[in-house]
Design brief:
Blueprint lengths: L3 H11 L22 H13 L3 H14 L4 H16 L3 H14 L6 H14 L9 H16 L4 H30 L3 H14 L6 H14 L3 H14 L4 H14 L1
């Protein structure tokens, strides 16, 4: 299910009073014929309510095209972005939200637009075996929401999502580090595990990273560094299986 915060805000944008009724379901509303703004916006909202998100997005775009100077054009831009988001057309959703911000940077709904951009990137995060460019874009966009609107409800949710994004990025570093270990490229492996410890120390990957770092240092013939990593692991995660493994390795190599 798509994010409830973004959905609730969209409902507020869409349900402001309009003097015209929604178009009949029997009428063809995809053709680009001139219509008054109330009728056109109502038709778009009606399609969105029915779950016809692609058609709703096209109709909200048409509101902006036919009535660019109407107050409804601003709302239609955001509703278009939301509709594309629901339709999983993330690029178009981002473009609509960015267009809104470029024209109305100080609008009261700007926080919603920034948050919607972040969600579009967040929804596209792939598994850790693939390139993480989108994950990094999601992290940057979520951070932008927090930086600009720290007291908003969007910022609170963005902070939670950043924790998940960081865990995902740490997982990617671990996956690469373990690959380097299997290939006997111990120095390259230490770089990856060190990054997890330095940049993602609050994630659940940190204990394993410390154990793998201990492992790698021992394989490189640097026992003193291995002991330091094991000591940090023992101090912070004394009861973990990773500390047990690191302790056994240290004992084996120093006995």
């Amino acid at each position: 299910m798509k994010n409830l915060i973004i959905r609730s805000t969209a409902v507020g944008l869409a349900t402001l009073s309009l003097s015209a009724c929604a178009t009949s379901s029997n009428k063809v509303d995809t053709s680009y014929i001139a219509r008054d703004v109330n009728t056109l916006y109502s038709a778009a909202k009606d399609r969105l309510d029915r779950g016809q998100t692609k058609l709703a997005a096209a109709l909200f775009d048409e509101v902006e095209r036919q009535h660019p100077y109407s107050p409804w054009a601003r709302r239609a831009q955001l509703m278009s972005s939301f509709s594309y988001y629901l339709d999983s057309d993330y690029n178009k959703s981002i473009q609509s939200a960015q267009r809104f911000l470029s024209i109305h940077p100080g609008n009261k709904d700007a926080p919603y637009a920034y948050y919607l951009i972040a969600l579009n990137y967040y929804e596209q995060i792939s598994d850790v075996t693939r390139d993480q460019k989108t994950t990094e874009q999601a992290l940057a966009a979520l951070g932008e929401v927090i930086r600009r609107y720290p007291q908003s409800r969007y910022a609170a949710d963005a902070k939670l999502k950043i924790d998940l994004v960081n865990d995902h990025l740490a997982g990617k570093e671990m996956e690469i580090g373990r690959f380097y270990q299997r290939s006997g490229r111990w120095l390259a492996a230490t770089v990856r595990f060190r990054k997890v410890i330095d940049d993602y120390q609050t994630t659940n990957h940190a204990p394993e990273a410390l154990m793998r770092l201990t492992e790698s240092y021992l394989s490189l013939g640097i026992p003193e560094e291995a002991k330091k990593s094991a000591a940090v692991l023992g101090a912070n995660y004394p009861g973990s299986k990773w500390y047990e493994r690191a302790y056994e390795l240290i004992q084996k190599h120093t006995s």
